[in-house]
Design goal:
It is a single chain. The chain has about 500 residues and is of the alpha+beta class. The radius of gyration is 22 Å and the shape is globular. Helix 5 crosses helix 7 and helix 6 packs across helix 7. Strands 7-6-10-4-3-14-17-16 form an 8-stranded mixed beta sheet, with no helix packed on it. A 5-stranded mixed beta sheet has the order 19-20-21-23-22, with helices on one face. Strands 5-9-8 form a 3-stranded antiparallel beta sheet, with no helix packed on it. The two termini are about 30 Å apart. The chain is built from 10 helices and 25 strands.
Length: about 500
């Protein structure tokens, strides 16, 4: 979930004990040159504010060989979203997005070709994808044959019949200056999602609950996971960064080309694109996973905290099991918030977002949110609740804030959040990303953790991930899983916390 500092009003309600409560959205503060001082070539390799210095030079980015994508991994069951039904088309099950993107920062122009392999979920006379109106569409073909399209706002309607369970390849050429889309929130510090251009012409994207359509044609809903091959052309020395493995990095007189391959399926809101002047460095987790860091060239401040991600993964793995993917990176952008984009976490550049607790929060999402994702935005709390509890535990064990203080502050604020935003499983659609989807289910999970004990609680939390690897799921599936694994009748417990109008009493009744 995109993270930013909470508002002053919420700070007053929670009191001093409840620092680091997280909210979706961009901060109203503007980023300056923070973190761009001359590097001293040293960073701390530990989390929790250690002052131990180690040499951390930049390094060439390792390039891996691309593989043939297994499209069957991306088979999904798309559904019309109950919260934001105007985005996405359940007739389309996207399997692979092959994107070739050229960015001209001087002209602020994106030129793209998208080749999309998809499965039709039903027979229909036409189908559609989401694509920002600011992008002009050129040639469109379906299985090599030119087809007509109609533009209706962000809807790109392809005038061609499709047959249930048949696979197709759609090719779309497009160009223009992408514009972010208004976000479904009334918060003052978070107003748009999608493709964002800085004053210098650099690019970053964050697109939850939607907004990927601002830069490529997409079935922009959480229930449709797909694979990605992304190639980015940018003027040297700028680099394009996206999800998965780096499979090409070349520079010639035309600029720099990078290619990325994501070989496990992701929902569109978990895809990232960042283009700018980046330096690369890396370290490894105890288990041997290389963690790649893409940071603004010359960045020194906070670099040690960013590179503490490897140690944070070690801490998470001890509770949630092995890291679920085969690559991991973090990219620092000009944003004021953060997002758990799959295998390549997107971070803003300020003290708060680059703090160890926020970085750990985004990394936990690789398990809860990315490996297993919600099939409908009514269940975004499935991502945030467990992640919030894990953040509280991380803060407690790293002497940032005690678990007692985090829980007490969250409980004190809970009724006010329900009154303002609604319960976490039935929130106001205009208020996406309120604190109610974080702290309320975080409290719920903590009650269950106390009831079961850590060993049993995390055993069930891990079994949920294993059973639903790479899937998009519903709350009903989660309820059934926890009842089956624990032998407890939990329906009233879950309902009270997730859809109830009032804060439940402590304990698991």
């Amino acid at each position: 979930m995109r993270l930013a500092r909470r508002s002053g009003a919420l700070r007053t309600r929670l009191g001093a004990a409840a620092v680091l409560v997280l909210l979706v959205g961009c901060s109203t503060e503007q980023g300056g040159d923070e973190g761009l001082e001359t590097p001293d070539a040293t960073t701390s390799g530990a989390t929790g504010g250690s002052t131990e210095e180690v040499v951390a030079p930049t390094s060439p980015a390792p390039v891996t060989e691309p593989v043939e994508q297994d499209l069957d991994l991306a088979l999904s069951t798309p559904v019309e979203d109950s919260v934001y039904p105007d985005v996405g088309d359940p007739r389309v099950d996207a399997l692979l997005y092959d994107l070739d993107l050229t960015w001209d920062p001087a002209e602020r122009e994106l030129t793209g070709q998208a080749v999309i392999d998809f499965r039709a979920t039903r027979r229909a006379p036409r189908f559609q994808l989401d694509l920002g109106r600011a992008l002009d569409v050129g040639a469109v073909s379906l299985d090599g044959e030119r087809v007509d399209v109609v533009r209706r706002g962000k809807d790109l309607v392809v005038q061609a019949p499709i047959v249930a369970d048949q696979r197709y390849r759609l090719s779309v050429d497009y160009a223009g200056t992408p514009r972010p889309t208004p976000a479904p929130t009334t918060r003052g510090d978070f107003s748009t999602t999608g493709f964002t251009i800085t004053e210098a012409g650099e690019v970053w994207t964050m697109q939850e609950p939607y907004g990927a359509f601002t830069w490529y044609p997409v079935n922009d809903q959480p229930s449709d996971k797909a694979l990605y091959d992304v190639t980015v052309h940018a003027p040297a020395p700028w680099t394009g960064v996206s999800n998965g493995h780096l499979t090409e990095l070349t520079t010639d007189e035309d600029g720099t080309t990078t290619s990325w391959q994501l070989t496990e399926p992701a929902s569109s809101y978990l895809v990232t694109l960042a283009i700018g002047d980046y330096a690369h460095s890396s370290n490894t987790t105890t288990a041997g996973l290389r963690v790649d860091y893409w940071t603004p060239r010359g960045m020194a401040q906070h670099l040690d905290q960013v590179q503490g991600a490897a140690a944070a993964v070690d801490w998470i793995e001890a509770r949630l099991g092995p890291y679920p993917f085969d690559s991991l990176g973090l990219v620092v952008t000009d944003s004021m918030s953060a997002m758990e984009t799959q295998t390549m976490v997107t971070l803003g550049n300020n003290d708060y977002v680059l703090s160890p607790a926020v970085i750990a929060h985004e990394l936990v999402h690789q398990w809860y949110g990315d490996q297993v994702s919600p099939s409908d935005w009514r269940d975004v709390w499935l991502n945030e609740g467990m992640t919030m509890l894990m953040q509280w535990l991380y803060q407690d064990e790293h002497d940032i804030q005690t678990l007692r203080a985090s829980v007490a502050g969250a409980r004190a604020a809970d009724q006010g959040l329900r009154d303002e935003y609604g319960p976490p499983g039935d929130y106001d659609p205009r208020q996406f990303g309120g604190s109610n989807i974080y702290t309320t289910p975080g409290l719920m999970w903590n009650e269950l953790r106390v009831e079961l004990g850590d060993d049993e609680f995390f055993r069930v939390a891990r079994s949920w991930l294993t059973e639903n690897d790479n899937a998009s799921v519903s709350r009903e599936q989660l309820y059934d899983h926890w009842e089956e694994e624990t032998g407890l009748e939990l329906s009233a417990f879950f309902d009270a916390w997730i859809t109830g109008p009032t804060t439940p009493e402590p304990g698991v009744a």
